Amino acid sequence: MRVLLLYPLFPKSFWSFEKTLALVDCKALMPPLGLITVAAILPQEWEFKLVDHNVQEITESDWDWAELVIISGMIVQKNDMLAQIAEAKNRGKLVAVGGPYATTSPQEVETADFLVLDEGEITLPMFIAAIERGDRSGVFRSAEKPAVTETPIPRYDLLDLTAYDNMSVQFSRGCPFQCEFCDIIVLYGRKPRTKTPEQLLAELQCIYDLGWRGAVFMVDDNFIGNKRNVKLLLKELKVWMAEKGYPFGLTTEASVDLAQDDELMKLMVECNFKKVFLGIETPDKDSLALTSKFQNTRDPLTESIDKITTAGMQVMAGFIIGFDGEKSQAGDRIVEFVEQTNIPLAMFSMLQALPSTALWDRLEKEGRLLNSAANINQTTLMNFVPTRDIEDIATEYVNAFWQLYDPAAYLERIFRYYMKLGEAKNVVSKRPSWKTIRALSLILWKQGVIAQTRLLFWRNLIQVLLKKRRQLEIYLTLCAYLEHFTEYRFIVREQINTQLANYIASKPEAEKVAS
Ligand code: SF4
C-alpha cells in the first residue's frame, strides 16, 4: 500500500512566525508528530510519503503515486484539511482522516472514506483490519484511552529535518485539571498517561542519530500532569543530556503549579528545559473560578511566574478575554499583568467554544452558540454570545494586542525579562553555524538598522552585552520574534475589525440604535 500522509496548512497565526522562521531559513515551527506516529503504527511493509503542506506543495507525482491518502490536523487547519480531502476525492483516492479536528467534529469531515478517530493506538488496528478485508469506508472510534507505553518511535526519518525550527517528542497525554474551555481533557482524558523514560530517551536518540541538534518541543498537554513519572524521566534524561553534551534545548507546556515544586523546576533546568508555556488565561480570579481553572487561583500568579523565571526557564503564556461575567477593561488588566511580569510571548485570544468541551455543552444548552462549526485562532471573533457586549470585548482585545506588541513596549519588556531570567545551567559554547551567523546578521540589520526602534535595540543590546551575555542567543531570539509580531498585530486588528463591522451590520436596526 502506498500511503501519502498529508499535513494541512496553518493560517497565519500567533505561532506561525513566518518572518522569524525565514531568518533561520526554516519553513515551519514544528513537524507533524501525529502523522509520523501514525506511520509508525501502520504496517511497516506499507510505503509512506509525507507532505507537510506548510513546507512544500503537493505535486502531481505525489497524487499519482498515492493509493491511500491520510490527512490529520487540528481545528485551526480545517480550511486546508477540507480542501485536501475534496482534492483527494476528486482524484479518486481512498481518503482516511484522523487527529483532533476530525475527532471532535466528525460530521464536518464525512466526505472522507475512513474516519479514524480518537487515539490511533486503538483505532488504527481497526482501520488496518478494514483495509485488509477490502472495505472502502468505515468509522473507527474508541472511548478507551490506550497506555502509551507501547507506542512506537515516530517515523522521524520521513521528515525533511532542515525545514523545521523545532523537533517534537511527546512523553505524556492528558491533564488532571478540568478547565471548562479545554478540549485536551475531552480528547485525551484527565488521567495523564506517560511513556517510560527508556521510550522517550530512545526517541531522543533517534532524532540525535538523524543529526538533529537544537530545539526540541515536548508537546505534552501538561508535561507535569504526572509529577512522579516526569521526575523519573528527568533523572534519566539529565544523565543522557550530560553524556551527549546538551544537544537539545527543550520547551514544553505545563500547569502553573510547576512553581510549587522546586525539585521539579531544578530537574527541568538541569535537563536543559529553556522555555515553558503556561495557560495563565486571565488575572481575574472570578473568571478563573468560573472556568474551573482553580489551579491558577492558589498562589499569586505573578509570584509563580517569577519563580519559574528565576529558576532559569523562560515563561510563555496564554491569555483569554471574554469569560462569562467578566468586568469591563479586562484587556487592560491583561496588559498590566504582562507588563508587570514582563512575559515576552503572551499569546492572546478571544474565548472560543470548542466542540465537545464542557463550555460548548453549557452554551449549547443555554442557546448561546453562534456557529455549529467552530474555528479557532487569534483572528476570529467569538463563536457564542458573551455576557457582555461583544463589541466591547473585541475592541478591548484589539487594543490590548496592539499595546502588547507595540515594538518599543515589546523591546523594553523582553529586556526587563531577560535581565531577570535565571542563568541556564548547561550553556555549552559551540562554534556558531553558518545558519546562526546568517540569522544574527539579519536580526542586526533589520532590528538595528531598518527598524524605527533601532536606538532602543542598540541601547538594550549593549546593556545585555555588558551585564549578561551568557545567554545572548535567548535575548536575540526574543528580538527576532518582533519581525513576526510587527506584522501580525496589523492582521489581528484588520481581521477582527472587519468581522466586527460585519457583525454590527448584520444586527437588527433596533439593536444598532440601542448600542
Ligand atoms: S491545565 Fe491546560 S491542558 Fe489542563 S485542563 Fe486546563 S487548559 Fe486543559
Structure characterization notes:
- The protein is of the alpha/beta class and 515 residues long.
- Among the domains are: 2-17 and 32-140, Response regulator (Rossmann fold, 3-Layer(aba) Sandwich), CATH 3.40.50.2300; 279-351 and 386-515, no CATH class.
- It has helices at residues 18-23, 33-41, 60-65, 78-90, 100-104, 120-133, 184-188, 197-209, 227-244, 262-270, 285-290, 301-311, 330-341, 358-365, 390-404, 407-420, 434-450, 454-467, 472-505, 509-514, and strands at residues 2-7, 47-52, 68-72, 94-98, 114-116, 138-140, 166-169, 172-173, 193-194, 214-218, 248-254, 273-281, 314-321, 345-350.
- The strands form three sheets. Strands 2-1-3-4-5-6 form a six-stranded parallel β-sheet, sandwiched between helices. A six-stranded parallel β-sheet has the order 7-10-11-12-13-14.
- Strand 11, helix 10 and strand 12 (273-281) form a beta-alpha-beta unit.
- The protein starts with a strand and ends with a helix.
- The mean pLDDT is 93.
- Bound molecules: iron/sulfur cluster.
- Iron/sulfur cluster (SF4) binds next to helix 7.
